[in-house]
Amino acid sequence: MESILSQVSAWSYAFAALLHGLFGLYLGVAWRKGRQGVFLIAAVVSSALWAAANWVFSTSGWVWMFQLGNLLDVLRMAAWFGFLVTMLSRSANGDPDSGLPAWPKPGVWAVMTLGALGVVCFTLGIPLYGTPLRTWAAASLMTSVFGLVLLELFYRAVTERSRWGVKPLALALGGLFAFDVYLYSEMLLFSRIHPVIWGVRGFAHTLALPLVAVSASRNPEWTFRISVSRHVVFHSTALAGSGLYLLIIAAAGYYMRYFGGEWGEALQLALLFGGVLFLGVIFFSGAFRARLKVFLAKHFFAYRYDYRTEWLGVTQALSVAGDGLSLGESVVKALADLVESPGGGVWLRDANGGFSQQARLNMPHYGLQESDDSAFARFMLEKEWVFNLQELRSSVSDGTKPPLPEWAAELADMWLIVPLISSGVLVGFVVLLTPRTPVDVNWEVLDLLKMAGRQAASYFARMQATEALLEARKFDAFNRMSAFVVHDLKNLVAQMSLMLRNAERHKDNPEFQADMLDTVRHVEERMRGLMTQLMEKTPINQRKPVMLKALLEHIVQSKRMFHPAPKLVEGAPEVAVFAHSERLERILGHIVQNALDATLEHGSVSVELSQERNQACVTVRDTGSGMSPAFIRDQLFKPFQTTKASGMGIGAYEAHQYVQELGGSLTVHSEVGVGTRFEIRLPIAPNAQNAGNTAVAE
After folding, report:
1. Given a cut of 50, is residue 692 above it in pLDDT?
2. How far apart are CA 379 and CA 336, in angstroms?
3. Which residues contact 425 (CB under 8 A, 6 or more apart)?
4. CA of 344: how far to CAs of 171, 371, 428, 490, 693, in Å?
5. Which of 69, 298, 327, 562 lies in the 20 to 30 Å Cα band around 203?
6. 129-133, 187-191, 271-275, 386-390: which range is least confident on average?
7. Which tens digits make up the pLDDT trace of 27-73?
């Protein structure tokens, strides 16, 4: 037995035991309670135990471990045969007319009994066929041949469309059974165990293991939730190819140095440098990576794309728009990466209602316009058609060819046109450039592009809706400010009209002339401030301490020409609040003006300022017509609600809003035919009571 012990066999079986054990553990976790899965797990686990027993024998020399390994080999073959017979039974149940023979199940029992008998004879030294070794070799050879026959029957029983899923398993088991046929044939002919063949048997089983994993991932009916990562396959293939390439270069360099004489070492170094440089060029080549991905997708996976990964990639590309790329550029990159295209452009709806290029990536700017009511746009919206321009240019027009825009025939580098449709609206379309490597645009590619196009269209639609909302809010803010400005202008015009009505009677009165000049000056300053505010499109709202007593005196003084003239109740405290003086004067003046408008000449209007703890209270009373509770509740503080023929219904609304902005409150008490009382409470500005007479109007 010592002749078959070597470092090669130890490493071979150790490697096989480790990988089979890990794969068996993974299958156990991924198993979903199926009969086929039980036999597959049993085959992998028994293979791990068989390899472990042979590893122990290779390192220790214990003969009994060698005999145990032979028994486990029989058990391993029985598990594989059980798996194949189970798959055969499943095929027969799915097709009763398949014509499968009845011998596989009893044949397995007979062959396994023969194999176990051969191991027992070899262990006990019973020479049933020549010597005990030849007896074991003959029984094992028959077992391996039976495995090939059973595998051939299984592969023929699988339908043509399903062979793609079992082909890797058939190759793996066929290779293992053929290897065993070679091992036991050599053993039977020469009555010895070849140490090299026996030693590399573990490596052979390990190399076949990935093919078993691929078949397990391709056949969900085996009840395994198992998947093979496309990225792992791509990088593993690239790494293996790079390693093989470097080995070839190294071997060529070695022989070149060996046979090259004095030029040998120089040629070897030049060859190694050139080989590494060429490998680097290929490694960083986008076209090479694209071709490798397409090759692996065609030959190793059921579907070309890993849809979970692609969906996450598209979503990630769109969600990080703004980090160096605009949303349009991110959309082009996301769609281009799906089909190995270097770039393209986005055409979106513009202000004229048509579609124009608004973003591009690795594409020149084209001043191309497409009308939204063209046959091309209508066809994209109705059919959600992805145009393959290369295919359409090469096809013969027979009347069924979809409509193409005129510019599509002039630009040879354009390849695909992907519509962007959201909620039944054509948001735009993406034009992709010719790919780095030929890509078969089949149904799977088209569906993926449509899915990504819908996702991108939703982002564009949301962006356009957000921009429209911001624009509407800007107009709303400007209109709101304009309404306040117009309301103030109306009040100023009312003051000027009142002054003109009294001018005929009091034009020779020096006091009236002085008041008239003060009023005109005040109106001019206010109108200039309002115009500045309107032109800058933003209200001047910087707050500072405002002395309420001086402000109310100014308001009462400016309205002394009205009948009845308002009066400020004596004893007003010196309190200040944080506010914009002009705006506060405007809303308080509006409340006083409303009281004057509602009161007859023989009535009264009073303004009172008091302090309640940390609040300043301004009370405006009148003996006018009053308001009903329903009007106060439903209409008073709503914009554009008024009972005046020339009113705008904006003053009370602004007063209520601004008082709340300052952290105060406005309450109204009124009775029809009796009068009204407005109470405005504002927080007192801390440390501002003794600020002196702060300027009231600027």
Report:
1. no
2. 23
3. 381, 461
4. 43, 20, 14, 57, 68
5. 298
6. 271-275
7. 777 666 666 677 788 888 888 898 898 888 888 878 888 888 888 88
What amino acid is encoded at 457 in this protein?
A
Peptide bond into 564 cis (omega under 30): yes
Q: Which residue reads 């695909």 in tokens?
A: 416
Residues 108, 81 contacting (CB under 8 angstroms) = yes
Structure tokens at 266: 């120089």
Look at the block and give the residue holding tokens 């301490």.
545
Contact criterion met (CB below 8 Å) for 168 and 214: yes
The two tokens of residue 5 are 């012990």
Q: C-alpha distances in angstroms, 677 versus 457, 507, 549, 614, 666?
A: 57, 36, 19, 21, 11
Model pTM score? 0.41
Mean per-residue pLDDT of the chain: 77
Q: Where do we find the tokens 């709806």?
A: 349
Tokens coding 654: 């602004």
pLDDT tens profile 96-120: 444 556 666 777 777 778 777 777 7
Helix, strand, or coil here: 340?
coil
Work out the angle between the directed axes of helices 651-661 and 581-597 (0-180°, nearest 10). Answer: 140
Tally of CB atoms within 10 A around 294: 18
Q: Which two tokens stand for residue 34?
A: 């199926």
Q: Using CA atoms, how far apart are residues 524 and 266, in angstroms rounded to an integer?
A: 96
Helix (H) or strand (E) holding 345: strand 344-349
Buried b / exposed e over 96-134, threshold 16 CB at 10 Å, is eeeebeeebeebbeebbebbbbbbbbbbeeeebbeebbb
Cα–Cα dist 626/598, whole Å: 8
Distance CA 96, CA 114 (A): 31
Nearest to 670 by CA among 585, 598, 582, 589: 598
DSSP 161: G
Structure tokens that stand for 495 in this block: 């003051």
Cα 283 vs. chain centroid, distance in angstroms?
28
- CA angle centred on 631, ends 627 and 635, rounded to 5°: 130
Contact of 345 with 430, CB cutoff 8 Å = yes
Which amino acid type is present at position 584? L
Query: How many residues are listed for the chain in this entry?
Result: 698
CB 491 within 8 A of CB 655: no
Question: From CA 185, how far away is CA 142, in angstroms rounded?
Answer: 10
CB 487 within 8 A of CB 652: no
CA distance 638 to 629: 14
